[in-house]
Amino acid sequence: MLERLFVRTIEADRQLEKDGSYLAALPVIKNLMKIGSLRLVKPVTIFAGENGTGKSTLLEAIAVCMGFNAEGGSRNFCFSTRSTESRLHEYLRIAKEAYPRDGFFLRAESFYNVASNIEDLDQGSYEILGAYGGESLHHQSHGESFMSLVLNRFRGNGLYILDEPEAALSPSRQLALIAELHRLVESDSQLIIATHSPLIMAYPGADIYVLSDEGITLTKYKDTEHYQLTKRFLDNPERILNILFDKKDYQKGGQDEA
Question: How far is the C-alpha of 100 from the C-alpha of 29, rounded, in Å?
Answer without folding.
Answer: 26
